Amino acid sequence: MNINLIDLLKKKVSAIVLEGETEYLSEKSQALTSFFPILLSILKSQPKLIESLQNQLNPRLTDIFITNPALKQQFLEQISGTVPTGAMESTLNRSIAPTLGVLEIEAGSAEPSAIVHLIETHWSAVSNALPPWALALLSALGIGTAVEHTLHQAPEITSYKEAEEKKKSGFLLPLIAFLFFSILFDTPPVILAVLLAFIFRACSSQKETEPASTFPTQTASSEPAKLQLSTGAAGYLTTCQLYSGNASYINILQQEIKQIFNHTMGCGVESNANYHTEFIDQDAIPSVLKLVKGVPNVSLTWMGNQLSIQTANPTDAQQLAAKIQPLVKNMTVLTQAATNTATPVAVDSHAVISTGNSNAEKALAEINPDNIRALDIATALNMQIINFDTASTHIPEANKSILDQAAALMKRAPQVKLTVKGHTDAVGHAATNKTLSQKRAQAVVDYLVKQGVDPAQLQAVGYGQEQPIADNSTANGQFKNRRIEFEVLNTETGVVREVNEEGIKKQ
Questions:
Q1: Among residues 107, 101, 132, 108, which one has the least CA distance to residue 122?
Q2: Does residue 369 sit in the same domain as residue 464?
Q3: Rg (CA), the chain
Q4: Are 301 and 308 in contact (CB under 8 A)?
Q5: 3-class DSSP string for 433-449
Q6: What pLDDT does residue 99 have?
């Protein structure tokens, strides 16, 4: 192969990730240049990690450093420079999925073995691109580099700690021996007391001056494992998030969710030691999810000993709770209709938006430029969330890179024709909302046209508050109702096909 894999990633992935960024562009570009060979080195040594990342909606650095969370913070501090570590982590997180997409295309397969073979083929370029400080990082992760480190070797900090322990032992043992013989030979109590004080002081001093380990021990789990998901108007999965300290069980549950809902992406995942490794009544989760499938507009949260259910129709919530309760004997099932004190499950809008946008970027990156279908573009675009500010028609920066990707594809495929649909919640006047939704849809069309898309390929329609998909009486429902959707027009039949979480729906 004549391509340089690192240069290819810098060209394709960096352009995707950094498009729409406004701060620290140079620093982030340099960080990505350093990150790509590090990531490829890790993937080469850990084929199972490749599959794990592929199965996640929004793979992150946390997933890469899951065996040693302390290293992630050290890595971020090293690579961030003057950039806030939180901002740098967000940028690197967004680079993982499109990197996997490029690797899959170049390898000609999504199989981990094919990707590993690709990296090995380009290993010279990858290893040469590694920054000097990366060798110690990879070694601490148990990963060999070009100089063939032993796999799973301990980080250097371990030998340092052992040396410190030897120092302490060498210092104290003679004193302890002296004390033993003093007692044996009946040394006066005053002298013994002085000796004891001296030993105590020495121990305290050693404890105070001992450097803190770079790899702190894990703390006990403090938060219960959590599963959050919601369905759309037809009862198909729209959002899903998993929080657990057990990565193996998450993988199992991911496969169950994909199969039950016929959903290729599964859930977003946060797996670290802060969360419990088990759900209460977790064996019942697949059975409960089968009951949820097909019920419209459900929000479900499984956390601790409580299972919260919310639906747009209170009757649906009550009927669903009645079926679920016998399956979860150690949990309390709450519904909005069952008790007035039940609090609606709060949507973490930032997390939902980030996950949706990341999924859209990944889906667009996976579209074959030689076989572009309107349905594929619309499906990918519908994964994102365009969260306009109140009363604004300004497209958020986070969505511009996604629309840029779509525009590049649409320019190559003039047969692709899309309708952009604007929707609002029910807050305010209906006429005002309809006008606003039309302007927002038009803003999306105008942006795509500005990027070179033929205006004949696009049309904008505003529906205002006429087509809600959730209960407008809750903040969560309002958030879901404020949305932009994309439709495909079949020019041969004239039938409009709405693309959403369930696939194609004829109107």
A1: 107
A2: yes
A3: 28
A4: yes
A5: HHHHHHHHHHHHHHHHH
A6: 92
